[in-house]
Design a protein that fits this description.
Two copies of one chain form a homodimer. Chain A is 43% helix and 16% strand. Chain A has 14 helices and 14 strands.
Chain lengths: 397, 397
């Protein structure tokens, strides 16, 4: 039988990364391809204790239907922490709980993008978000990402020339895939341009609290005086991703539309884990917990950087990120990261070619993304050494 | 600031029911408005035991990212049970875990409906699904629901006259809001018409296993020989709704598109509860558990029917359903259920006016939907008696 699918779904390809991840289920493959946190960072013992309490004393509430906006005490404790610690959110804002950060992007796109409306993205950017915007048949326009964030001249040019620009999508802090941080100056410039051209900004900030070195740069949302920023945060990297908990802080009017959108999508987010997360945040010391995560990832980042210094030598450049989960490595422009990753795959090491993150996904990229949070120290050493073998083979050295 | 929202979200109104549910958070209001299962039916003790095991022995896997299709053992045990017990699913089908049944509708709409494509719905029908289809800017066409299901003559007329009909959406078993069951004859006719006019069917079947009386009628999916039925099931009514677990059984080609759609929506469903549900299904006797739920709801249905017989008398008709969660009550056509529900609200009893379920939501309906699963026996007696007062006032008796 022939199925007459929608245009949007016919145009959408499965994420190359998720396809790579399936390959890495082979346990003999060393994977730097994932974006997974380390299992060691999950507060399982504390969660177990809270879960027992919930099942014993509040099972009726935790297992019943909840409201679309999310569990009120979790919304409140999340909003208060964002406000008190990072000056994120004003009295005109509200906060909704979503089923992971990805849903924040989906609901924002649903609320703003008509078919053929334009959304401007950093190039490269997170493929999950790019595909989400594609699923709304939006016009995606990439603006090159520099070491200190989006190229602001190119952004202004794009805002001048493109029609129906509704949104600018950025991951300003420890960007995926590059690990780069948008400078404070550029954050201010971005807000100024968004205001001048009357465009909304989606600030996707899942790695915000994973800083291992360098100086704190405030969230764009904390600099927003006009209600122009939709802030998408996540508990995936500081509690755990399998529970699918994220949040969106946005102007109340926008929030109303996100709630209507979420109602028809999944009614509400798993309530048991909303209550569990709230209890974790109120009973335990989240700041200490995050500090432990930082210490672990700092050490893993350093281990991978050392291994690259030792094994890659002059063959491949790598950027030392101040945070996040990824190291971005590049060859000169004439090379193809996808070819290199094919060879490394044959040697039992998986990494993601830079082309997977391009707004125009038929483009070639000389970059490769490495994840350092998931592999063990042994896997980092062995995997980077094997990848260097692939490099030598690819470069013919 | 003025926000330039998408057309789809501007046209979408918040669900009237969810607004009513907010009012019923006032504990002095007796609510027949919800669609919630009874808290007594949640297997909290068994879940607590499994959760402890998961946190102790498999926390790493349960809290980590999972694949979009869902936890493989849960997919397998769900598919096997559907196949063995109800002949649902063929070797050409596959099963995906979704974040509650609502997401099954959302992903099906995403995969099939272009803007202005037509979806045919029973009239009245479940508002959450109707709003979901509206969010894709689809053309919703209602076909009247008779006591034994959709009016098949009207359906054929509609299939003949409407353009770009892609989907027929039905809740054939213990329909929401009416509690009615589509006859076997009509199920066969529906498949025949769908085949003749080359249209897909969404079979939304959350109440399938909640039968308290009458004869079993097989699922439409079990009669499907062409791969024309997308079957949406839910664990909300047999395990608990707060965990947001549903499933879709559909032809493999369709499944591939649903997976791509889910990837960009929420990546995957809460993995911890997918594993927990699997362990519940494999360790405990689900059939006994469902039998207990049936016994409870049968008794509550009978209690509400008795109370209506006693209090409503000749004032209002009510249909005794063989299953599900709702009793559908009607006045003669010249009356307005919404007016009646306003008066009952003032007396402290909430129910949902039939107009909330109409495909054209500006239409007036003389019907009212009552839920019997959530209220206690005392609330049923007192609430129906108060509702009868409202009836007397409304009818001027």
């Amino acid at each position: 039988m022939n199925y007459n699918f929608s245009d949007r779904i016919n145009e959408l390809k499965p994420s190359a990364i998720r396809e790579i991840l399936k390959v890495t289920q082979n346990p003999s493959v060393i994977s730097f391809a994932a974006g997974n946190p380390s299992v060691e960072t999950f507060p399982a013992a504390e969660m177990a204790e809270i879960a027992q309490d919930l099942f014993t004393n509040r099972a009726g509430a935790a297992l019943q239907y909840g409201v679309t906006e999310g569990y009120t005490p979790l919304r409140e404790i999340t909003a208060a922490r964002l406000r008190d610690k990072y000056s994120i959110g004003s009295p005109n804002d509200d906060l909704i709980i979503v089923s992971g950060g990805q849903q924040g992007m989906d609901l924002s796109a649903k609320a703003f993008l008509n078919e053929n409306d334009t959304i401007i993205c950093e190039n490269p950017s997170f493929i999950g978000s790019l595909n989400c915007f594609r699923s709304y048949k939006a016009n995606l326009v990439g603006v090159p990402l520099q070491f200190d964030g989006m190229d602001m001249d190119k952004l202004e040019e794009t805002l001048k020339t493109e029609k129906n620009v509704k949104l600018i999508y950025v991951i300003p802090t420890f960007q995926n895939p590059t690990g780069r941080v948008m400078s404070l100056e550029k954050r201010k410039k971005l807000l100024e341009l968004a205001s001048r051209y009357d465009v909304m900004i989606i600030e996707d900030n899942p790695y915000f609290e994973l800083r291992y070195s360098g100086e704190y740069v405030p969230a764009i949302k904390s600099l927003d005086t006009e209600g122009r920023v939709i802030y998408v945060g996540s508990y995936s990297k500081i509690l755990s991703p399998g529970i699918r908990l994220g949040f969106v802080c946005a102007p109340k009017v926008v929030m109303g539309k996100l709630v209507v959108g979420k109602q028809v999508t999944d009614v509400h987010t798993n309530l048991f884990f909303q209550m569990l997360a709230h209890d974790f945040l109120s009973r335990y010391n989240l700041e200490e917990h995050i500090e432990k995560i930082r210490a672990l990832y700092r050490s893993k980042r350093d281990a991978m950087i050392s291994a690259m210094e030792k094994s890659f030598g002059e063959m491949m450049n790598f950027e030392k990120p101040d945070g996040g989960l990824f190291i971005w490595c590049g060859l000169p422009e004439e090379y193809d990261g996808a070819e290199l990753c094919k060879i490394s795959g044959q040697k039992g090491v998986a990494a993601v070619p830079g082309s997977s993150f391009l707004v125009n996904d038929r483009d070639v990229s000389p970059y490769v993304r490495f994840n350092f949070s998931l592999p063990t120290y042994e896997q980092i050493d062995k995997g980077i050494s094997l990848f260097a073998d692939a490099l030598r083979e690819y470069l013919g050295r």
